[in-house]
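Predict the 3D structure for this chain.
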Amino acid sequence: MRTRWKVLLICGLLVPGAGLVRASDAPIAEQLEFFEKRIRPLFVSHCFECHGPDRAKGGLRLNTGDAVRRGGDSGAVIVPGKPDESLLIEAVGHRGDIKMPPKEKLSDAEIADLKRWVEFGAPWPADQPEAKSDSAPFAITAEQRAFWSFQPVRTPAIPPIRNDHWPAGSIDQFILSRLEAAGLAPSPEADRRILIRRVTFDLTGLPPTPEEIDAFLADDRADAWERLVDRLLNSPHYGERWARHWLDVARYAEDQAHTFQARMYPNGYRFRDWVVRAINDDMPYDRFVTEQIAGDLLEGPTETKHDRETAVGYFALGPVYYADAGCAFKASLDELDDRIDTLARGFLGLTLACARCHDHKFDPISQQDYYALAGVFRSTAYREAPLVPPEVVAKYEAGQKEVKEHEQKIKKYQEQEAERLTDETTRHVSRCLTAVWRVAHPPAGSGRLNRSQIAKEEQISEVVLERWQNFLVPDKLGELPQLATWIVDRAAELPVAPDGKGVPSAVVEAALVFEQEVLAALAERSAKEQQHAAAVAAAPEAEKSKIAKPALDKRQADLLAAVAGPKGLCAVPVDKVEGLLDATHLVELTGLKARHEVLKKSVPGKYAFAHSLADGQAANMKLHIRGNPTRTGDEVPRRFLTVLSPESPVAFAQGSGRVELARAIASPENPLTARVIVNRLWQQHFGRGIVGTPSNFGSLGERPTHPELLDYLAGRLVSGGWSLRKLHREILTSATYRQASTDVARHSEIDPDNKYLWRMNRRRLDVEAWRDALLMVAGNLDRAAGGPSGSLTSSDFRRRTLYGMVSRHSLDGMLRLFDFPDPNITSERRTVTTVPLQQLFVLNSEFMVREAKALSARVAGASNDDTARIYEAYRQVFGRQPTDAETQLGLEFLKPPEPDRSVPADPSAPKSTLSRWEQYSQVLLGANEFTFVD
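Done. Predicted structure below.
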């Protein structure tokens, strides 16, 4: 019976709640953007030679959607939604008779992109009626310039409303006007407990403490709500919470998706901390933008110079792409593309990366616009900016130089000794041959001899011995005619040489004959070298370089190349030198290494630095025809976007152009910048932006639900000195924000998505707020701010999740499970999924168990009475008192179970390692009420 109570309690509290959005297919706009950025360039660069507009090998063209769907002589090449059944995927995977491209297989990443595109249904933007032809000359039409997001921000008139008792400010009048026009009415104000939890999570990412809740409930002043909002906006946790939202946009991470020679960002946390400080200090948003684009180039107080250099981590911390296997140039172009994409989506809400291969299919953005910006970033270099005085840097670099010089001494000594040992081994090559015999023919009854022991006895490297073993086989002996007399078998019937090693005399003799051949070749080479040196010395200066070196005959040259060459059979590897040195040489090498260790310890540690940028050689880029870097067009001057320039855009003249670019973006005349950030703030407070596609204000993006309100807020931001804090306050003190989240059936029929905001949206906590809240209510949260990141997997790491390491290569499992965005790309919003593994994590993870135990111990100190403890647990976890039914349910569960004497005890039955109170605490922490905000 008690077990049943436990199951009921867990099942009752862990079921998915209302308002949870399940994972679904990407919106069509995102699919089309994916095609333009990843698939069309792939077809152009890898497929058009045989399947493009000018050629249809096998009857297949890949230049239009209709042609792809039609297929070729082999039939359909794609089955939309089913990559495993698509001939195209089979061909690019080289799995069948048809292999495409035939010369070189696509990379795994490119094949994965094609699979994803087919899973989407193989959408093709050119099939859309508004798409432009590839061959059409680029020109911005009057209709395109009149598009809503490119229009200047206007000051709209406050709309008239019928219910003039509800609004608390102008925002509410805009909202109510749309509601009344749609036949809707706003919801009542939410309960005060709900409101303080909502706004505290919104502004700080933490739950309110029981004491804060009690104080707010007891505050009967008319401006109690405004006071609460102001207190939270002035909390240091406000910057932490809102920095995390911005870091999603900035695709912040501290390493790379690959580890082979990848650039790492051990000081990446400094950019994260800069964002926190900037938000807490209410840095004007135009300055916030400008510093992230060009902070390293801006003038300003000396004491803030390091902050400005840190700010451009927005770009400097970006992903670095594979540059091996001849792909360095393409990798550099991909990195430029990442910076352009992050700049455009983050600050402007535009998808510029679509114009890498062709004029944008839907928005008035040309390839010239793309390569104008690419030139800006091509003229910019990654830099690790010192955050210490120059003399500290100089001291560190001098120490490092001395260490490296000494490392070169060690390396040179080892290389010299490797050459000497190789020469010595070559001159005693007979040892190698007899050693191979000994390994292959152990004495009867002794078993196989140890190769390393034999190598030591013969005074040769084990690596050399292994090479000779692999060479002295019948198939390879013909490669060196000097080994024609070498005896491979017949060991048993041959007389043994009197050397005590059990090697037949014939083997020893053959080995010595071979050795004499090698020595003769070495002597002949030495004689010819001396002959050449004498001839050069005697010749006039002008003739010295013309004297040819005498060559060995082919037989001797081949012998020395095979035996004594840099990769020859007797070559001693540098890393094996130490184990072969005699006492005298070993003392020399040991002394060099000891000195190296002393130098390393005496050198000061790496100084503090920021991952930053610097202007490189300023230069324009040429347009890449169809995105192909091997086919270039005219040079494109570095400049801003044509559609956002009042007249013809002026070429940038200051270095890379980043300062001019930053000022163009942060200008109050730019209609996009203020709208985009206002929309991002609105999205985080209401769960959905006024524009539902926060990083796409172009024609494929959603239209604003309240365009006048968007302009009103954008205007308020600029007129208010670009203060985000003021804007937060105006939004949060609105009646719209304070609505209840309760559903109204009639309203849901009219506006099921709540686009008009007739109620508040219920939202699930993101993973950071959820983890932080778990730590906080369990009494384990460490609120220390800033500094290096820690490992979220460590049981000792109890700081806010913001301060956990974010890895592109291996994202923390908890972050990945609970919908943390991919840090390789800029992210406009968090997806919200419900999968079984999330609930298994709640039930079984060490983290949840640890916090449940901590919560249990915390409430145990409140009282010895279970009823009082339940009250305290609800107070800490939910900020309220339990109902009578909840109290009774808890007491029933907490009673020790009475043994059922009619059933024999099963000693093998699993026993929980958690006490009843610990299990009860874990269930409370996993409840929907804790996970959701109303």
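The chain has 39 helices and six strands.
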